[in-house]
């Protein structure tokens, strides 16, 4: 079975052969460990695929928002990065004052980057301003939402012209321990947008993958209603039991394991962490994938332990060892 076939069997609950496991290595992590990390990647072809030494790899040559300094995106939002190899933050918001809205001209193209809907609203307005907007409901807010939605629908239409089997989106809807807004405000202002965007994909026969950092338990059901078929939630912000309750058997999960645990735990604790996730959230029908993002503060032995645990439990679907 090819990786692609196993992937779609997983997200369609059609009895995949193995659990798809991914280890994400930030550019700063590559810069921290360099050749040692390259050797680790080569040692684990089941996780990274077959790899070879790359004598031309430039570890500290960061691009885009991973580069220190500032840059302005196609919406006029200014990003600042203070630590190369990790991501940047928006520090200047072009519609921080509603007086700037009337003359603001949105871009005509540029794709669907991470932060395409909700985050784009606070990139444009500023986070505190947007939270006040949700509370006060000014007429300009509805016009701003319509503007961003119109842009996104046009970009989705371009993507769907290529007849993809799945379309991926990223929007961090949660804070660490709660939603930044009430579920009611989410359903009033944002859910209709996602329903139109994701609905267009579903009508075209494409799956919808949504990455969302932070606590989102109260709205996972809403996101499923909007058309999400694969969700990528964080385990610490939502708890494993919470994710099991809201997702298992209802939507495929690419589980973001506890990246805040990885720098401080032992390899044995990593093994137990992965095993528990597989036991509680996995099933022979499918629906589970695992992802571990490793920042530069994760020790090499723990990155190795993550890979080993993935290799150990990836065949859970075809094993009786965990039942």
Give your account of this protein's structure:
The chain has 323 residues and is α/β, with parallel strands linked by helices. Helix 4 crosses helix 5 and helix 11 packs parallel to helix 12. It has twelve helices and nine strands. Helix 7 links the parallel strand 5 and strand 6. 43% of the residues lie in helices and 13% in strands. The strands form two sheets. It has a six-stranded parallel sheet with strand order 1-9-8-7-6-5, with helices on both faces.
Overall spatial form: globular
Total of DSSP H or I helical runs spanning 4+ residues: 12
- Fraction of residues in H or I helices: 40-55%
Q: What is the strand tally? A: 9
Q: Could you tell me the strand content as a percent range?
A: 5-15%
Helix-and-strand structural type? alpha/beta
What number is the mean pLDDT? 96
Low-confidence stretches: none
- Our Rg estimate from Cα atoms comes to 20 Å
Helix-strand sequence? HEHHEEEHHHEHEHEHHEHEH
The end-to-end span amounts to 25 Å
Read across the widest sheet, the strand sequence of neighbours is: 1-9-8-7-6-5
Largest sheet: 6 strands, parallel
List keywords for this structure.
13% strand; 323 residues; 12 helices
Spell out the blueprint of helices and strands:
Blueprint: H1 3-11, E1 20-25, H2 27-43, H3 45-48, E2 69-72, E3 78-81, E4 89-92, H4 118-125, H5 127-136, H6 139-160, E5 166-170, H7 183-203, E6 207-211, H8 220-226, E7 230-232, H9 235-238, H10 240-247, E8 252-256, H11 267-281, E9 288-294, H12 300-313
Parallel strand pairs: 1-9, 5-6, 6-7, 7-8, 8-9
Antiparallel strand pairs: 2-3, 3-4
């Amino acid at each position: 079975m090819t990786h692609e076939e196993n992937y779609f069997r997983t997200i369609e609950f059609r009895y995949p052969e193995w659990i798809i496991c991914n280890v994400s290595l930030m550019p700063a992590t590559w810069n921290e460990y360099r050749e040692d990390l390259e050797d680790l990647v080569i040692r684990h072809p089941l996780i990274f695929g077959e790899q070879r030494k790359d004598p031309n790899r430039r570890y500290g040559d960061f691009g885009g928002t991973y580069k220190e300094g500032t840059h302005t995106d196609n919406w006029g939002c200014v990003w600042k990065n203070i630590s190369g190899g990790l991501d940047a933050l928006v520090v200047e918001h072009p519609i921080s004052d509603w007086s700037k809205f009337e003359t603001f001209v949105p871009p005509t193209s540029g794709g669907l980057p991470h932060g395409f809907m909700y985050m784009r609203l606070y990139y444009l307005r500023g986070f505190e301003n947007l939270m006040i907007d949700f509370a006060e409901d000014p007429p300009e807010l509805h016009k701003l939402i319509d503007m961003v939605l119109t842009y996104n629908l046009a970009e989705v239409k371009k993507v769907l012209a290529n007849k993809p089997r799945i379309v991926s989106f990223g929007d961090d809807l949660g804070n660490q321990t709660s939603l930044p807004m009430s579920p009611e405000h989410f359903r009033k202002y944002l859910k209709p947008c996602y329903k139109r965007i994701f609905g267009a994909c579903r009508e075209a026969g494409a799956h919808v993958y949504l990455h969302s950092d932070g606590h989102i338990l109260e709205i996972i059901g809403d996101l499923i209603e909007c058309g999400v078929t694969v969700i990528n939630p964080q385990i610490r912000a939502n708890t494993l039991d919470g994710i099991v309750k809201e997702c298992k058997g209802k939507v495929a999960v690419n589980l973001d394991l506890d990246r805040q645990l990885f720098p401080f735990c032992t390899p044995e604790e990593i093994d137990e962490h992965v095993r528990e996730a597989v036991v509680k959230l996995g099933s022979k029908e499918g629906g589970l994938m695992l992802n571990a993002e490793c920042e530069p503060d994760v020790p090499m032995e723990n990155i190795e332990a993550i890979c080993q645990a993935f290799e150990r439990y990836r065949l859970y679907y075809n094993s009786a060892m965990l039942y």
